[in-house]
Write a structure and sequence with these properties.
Layout: H1 3-19, E1 22-26, E2 29-33, E3 45-48, H2 54-64, E4 70-75, H3 78-90, E5 94-103, E6 115-116, H4 119-133, H5 139-147, H6 149-152, E7 158-165, E8 171-180, E9 183-191, H7 200-211, E10 217-223, H8 226-235, E11 237-249
Parallel strand pairs: 3-4, 9-10
Antiparallel strand pairs: 1-2, 2-3, 4-11, 5-10, 5-11, 6-7, 7-8, 8-9
Length: 250
């Protein structure tokens, strides 16, 4: 593993540890937990970065995440995740690889700044976005998905929410920016359905890249599908490595 990728993994691990309400150490990793949002996969999961046998990892997930309605495991090492995949799949987990991409381009200059979204407005935007994404979800589920961002502000020295507005003033696209120890992560990029195909996501990304230009390292996670990879490649990102997610609904 390159030192650059190792720094990204440490950033991700430490971000999750800082925002967690409680933790449980396991061999090769840690469970990060938040009893306020028990249904949130991102806030209640097992992070693994070391190990030599898949069976103990599967058992650790069952023990550390006992009582929850899901089991979510995020393996930060590509080789380890690939090696563990058969055991987790056999145990009923869905396997999702994620691509880590690092910015290699030149930061845009002279681009308009994205709007700074306060916490209250961001929560309101998230409510609308989650209702759009999960039309069958109950109101309390949508509310929990929106409010969990309140705990995310503990994850890094700078946690900022940015948005680009449509002509009518509605937030068309939004994203998070996390900066800590000279590393910046762009996360949760989302464009509302009725505003897609109009360039809002690109405008937002260019603005955030300009804002994060002082960081020594800018990265993001995305799925491995061609559309997302091609979109970020056009902006100047290059693949750096992969992580692996394993999810089972109880």
């Amino acid at each position: 593993m390159s030192e650059e990728l190792a720094r990204v993994h440490r950033f991700q691990r430490d971000f999750n540890l800082r925002k967690a309400r409680r933790t449980i150490e396991v061999p090769g990793g840690v469970a990060v937990l938040n009893d306020r949002f028990p249904a949130s996969h991102d806030d209640n999961k097992l992070l693994l970065w070391a190990g030599d046998a898949p069976a103990p990892a599967v058992q650790a997930a069952d023990e550390a995440l006992a009582g929850l309605g899901h089991r979510y495991v995020h393996v930060l090492d590509d080789d380890l995740g690939a090696a563990f995949a058969p055991a987790f799949t056999a145990a009923g987990y869905e396997h999702s690889p994620y691509l880590t991409m690092v910015f290699r381009g030149q930061a845009p200059a002279g681009v308009p700044a994205a709007d700074q979204l306060g916490l209250d407005e961001m929560i309101s935007v998230l409510r609308a976005n989650w209702r759009e994404t999960l039309p069958g979800a109950r109101d309390e589920e949508v509310e929990a998905l929106a409010l969990r961002i309140e705990d995310r502000v503990r994850g890094a020295a700078t946690v900022a929410f940015r948005g680009v507005r449509a002509p009518d003033g509605e937030v068309a696209a939004r994203a998070d920016l996390y900066v800590h120890d000279d590393i910046a992560q762009i996360e949760s990029v989302y464009t509302a359905e009725r505003h897609r195909g109009k360039g809002h996501a690109r405008t937002l990304m260019e603005s955030m890249l300009a804002e994060a230009a002082g960081a020594a390292l800018i990265f993001l996670y995305t799925g491995t599908d061609n559309w997302a990879r091609d979109f970020y490649t056009r902006l100047g990102f290059e693949p750096l490595g992969r992580t692996h997610g394993f999810l089972r609904i109880e």
